[in-house]
């Protein structure tokens, strides 16, 4: 089911810190057109002008620019790695019987989309898909399930994701009726049994946190050959990110940028350059869809300047 061309590129390794510097101030100015997600208390008070960038290549040292020591919660950035974990540990045909691969034109937390699809999650990058997949993590408790994913990612990527307890408390304080309605509909469709267990698991994995370095290292799990991750599994996850990683804006940015991308409402953005490396950006202000305004602006500049699109013709 791969949509991603299999090619090797060294263009990412040619980027320098000097190449990024001219775009940092314009990116911060661009972020003024976005806003912080006030519906999540822990995210509503963050400095909207924070900016951090990491470019990880398998051919040159990583580049780190900006507020690189800032720790932020991954939120929906965890979704492709939840899918990656499950595809690596279970039969892909079974996983894709539990979640689809079609793009959605509805918001990421849409219950209407799930109802229209007769209770079958449209893809793994929206809440219904990730909640369905969270029910498949191993462990008896939500903490055990989150730990299985966290530890595997830390080992595979050489990073240090941790649980942000304050963010988790903030998320737990919300009624979050949209996710609860999604879980009830999934239960009716036979995709999960214990609603409370699955929702707590989902909340915990979304509150895993790290710096921009950690996000960039995670990206390498999808960008370069990995001893414990089949090549075809990488292509599957990248394909779903390309078509669905930016929610209803995915098609627009597949055309404009041409890379697998995933966003999170905390302001993180991760782009994969298959067989080459990753670009991770943190800029907290988001648009109405839930994507980082500054992150997409800067990513587009980087991709165009260095001809990184998978579909480039030159």
Textual characterization of the structure:
- With 314 residues, the protein is of the alpha+beta class.
- The chain folds into 2 domains: 12-73 and 209-306, DD-peptidase/beta-lactamase superfamily (Beta-lactamase, 3-Layer(aba) Sandwich); 77-206, 3-Layer(aba) Sandwich (Beta-lactamase), CATH 3.40.710.
- Helix content is 45%, strand content 10%.
- The chain is built from 13 helices and 8 strands.
- It has helices at residues 17-30, 79-89, 92-98, 111-116, 127-134, 142-157, 165-172, 177-188, 195-206, 212-223, 231-244, 250-256, 293-306, and strands at residues 52-57, 63-66, 72-73, 162-163, 208-210, 261-263, 268-273, 277-282.
- α1 (17-30) runs antiparallel to α13 and α2 (79-89) runs antiparallel to α11 (231-244).
- The longest helix is centred in the middle third of the chain and has 16 residues, at 142-157.
- The radius of gyration is 18 Å and the shape is globular.
- Mean pLDDT is 94; it is low at 4-8.
Concise overview:
With 314 residues, this protein is of the alpha+beta class.
């Amino acid at each position: 089911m791969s949509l991603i061309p299999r090619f090797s590129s060294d263009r990412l390794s040619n980027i320098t810190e000097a190449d990024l510097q001219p775009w940092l101030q314009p990116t911060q100015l661009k972020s003024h057109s976005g806003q912080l997600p006030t519906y999540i208390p822990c995210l509503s008070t963050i400095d909207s002008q924070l900016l951090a960038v990491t470019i990880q290549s398998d051919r040159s040292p990583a580049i780190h620019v900006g507020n690189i020591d800032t720790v932020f919660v991954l939120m929906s950035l965890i979704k492709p790695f939840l899918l990656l974990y499950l595809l690596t540990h279970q039969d892909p045909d079974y996983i894709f019987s539990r979640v689809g691969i079609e793009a959605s034109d509805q918001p990421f937390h849409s219950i209407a989309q799930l109802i229209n699809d007769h209770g079958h999650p449209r893809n793994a990058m929206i809440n219904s898909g990730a909640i369905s997949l969270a029910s498949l993590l191993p462990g008896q408790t939500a903490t055990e399930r989150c730990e299985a994913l966290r530890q595997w990612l830390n080992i595979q990527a050489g990073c240090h994701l941790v649980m942000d307890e304050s963010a988790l408390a903030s998320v737990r304080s919300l009624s979050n009726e949209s996710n609860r309605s999604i879980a009830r509909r999934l239960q009716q469709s036979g995709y999960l049994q214990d609603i409370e267990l699955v929702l707590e698991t989902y909340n915990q994995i979304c509150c895993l946190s790290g710096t921009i370095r950690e996000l960039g290292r995670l990206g390498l799990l999808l960008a370069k050959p990995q001893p414990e991750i089949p090549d075809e599994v990488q292509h599957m996850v990248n394909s779903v990110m390309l078509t669905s990683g930016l929610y209803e804006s995915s098609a627009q940015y597949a055309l404009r940028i041409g890379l697998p991308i995933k966003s999170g409402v905390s302001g993180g953005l991760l782009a994969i350059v298959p067989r080459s490396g990753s670009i991770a950006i943190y800029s907290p202000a988001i648009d109405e869809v839930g994507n980082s305004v500054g992150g997409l602006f800067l990513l587009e500049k980087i991709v165009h300047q260095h001809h990184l699109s998978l579909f480039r013709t030159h």
